[in-house]
Every structure is written in structure tokens, then in C-alpha cells.
Write a structure and sequence with these properties.
Layout (H helix, E strand, L loop, with lengths): L1 H8 L1 H56 L4 H37 L8 H14 L15 H12 L1
Helix pairs in contact: 1-2, 2-3, 2-4, 3-4, 3-5
């Protein structure tokens, strides 16, 4: 009802209100989805990172010290293990980057021209969006590109 009245007076302002409301709903759905992903996959990601880290250590050790004749097989397996971890970390980094850009999107949406009720919701959303969303490995580390770099550096030293 409020949007219809505003639409008659200023179509641009009404469009901003509608986009602000749809942005708010989209962000809340996004945050809920990210929380569900964190709750469902945190322990399996921890086990995956632990097992892959052990396998990377084993492959590097076998490539360097043990079996020179089977070196190509170990290098192929090492490549696939690193690729697997890199995919998890890449999408984790994309989640972090997207969650950090929510606050900027809310601020640039023209929230200050909206009615008081919508403005209050958007300010709450703005404060909430300043805290990033991330997926962790059971609280051990954050799944992002910096953790991928740490895994590579620790395994190759």
C-alpha cells in the first residue's frame, strides 16, 4: 500500500523502495542459506581437509624419497588433491566476498530515502552485513584462499 502511494508521487523513489525490500529479502535468504551450509558441511569439510592434508604429505614424501619409478602417479594424485581443496577454498572465498559486498549494496541502495519502517530494517541489515559470512572446517579454520595457501605452504616445506 505504501509503495503504491509513493509510486504516484515519485516513480524513481518507489522503485528504490521496492528494490530495497527485495534486496532485504534476498540478503536474509542468502544469510540463512549460508548458515545452513555451515551447519551441514562443517564437519565433513574438516574431515576432508584433514584427510587430504595427510594424503598430500604422503604423496610429497613418496615422490621425493621413496619411489622414483612411480613418481608420475603420485604427482597426478597430488594435483587432483590440490585441485579438490582449491575448489572448496575458491567457493568459500566467493561466499566471503559476496557477504562483504552486501553492506555496500545496502548503503548504495538509497536507504535514506525510504520510509522509517523500511529504513530501520535496512539499517539493521546494514549492521548485520558488516559481519562476514564464512564456512569453517568445524571451527578449525575458515575455508578461503588464504587457508589454501597455508595448506600448500605447510605441505611443501
Amino acid at each position: 500500500m505504501l509503495v503504491i502511494q509513493a509510486k504516484r508521487s515519485n516513480p524513481l523513489r518507489a522503485r528504490n523502495w521496492v528494490s530495497s525490500i527485495s534486496l532485504e529479502l534476498l540478503v536474509f535468504a542468502y544469510l540463512k542459506l549460508a548458515n545452513d551450509v555451515e551447519n551441514q558441511f562443517t564437519f565433513p569439510l574438516f574431515i576432508n581437509f584433514l584427510v587430504i592434508s595427510i594424503l598430500i604429505c604422503f604423496c610429497v614424501f613418496c615422490c621425493v624419497y621413496v619411489e622414483k619409478w612411480n613418481e608420475i602417479n603420485y604427482k597426478c594424485f597430488l594435483t587432483t588433491a590440490l585441485l579438490q581443496i582449491s575448489l572448496h577454498c575458491l567457493y568459500g572465498q566467493r561466499l566471503i566476498d559476496a557477504s562483504e559486498s552486501i553492506a555496500e549494496a545496502v548503503y548504495c541502495s538509497g536507504w535514506y530515502t525510504t520510509p522509517k519502517k523500511i529504513k530501520t530494517s535496512l539499517i539493521i541489515l546494514l549492521y548485520r552485513a558488516q559481519k562476514g559470512v564464512c564456512v569453517t572446517t568445524y571451527g578449525f579454520s575458515i575455508v578461503c584462499l588464504s587457508s589454501y595457501a597455508t595448506v600448500i605452504c605447510l605441505k611443501l616445506i
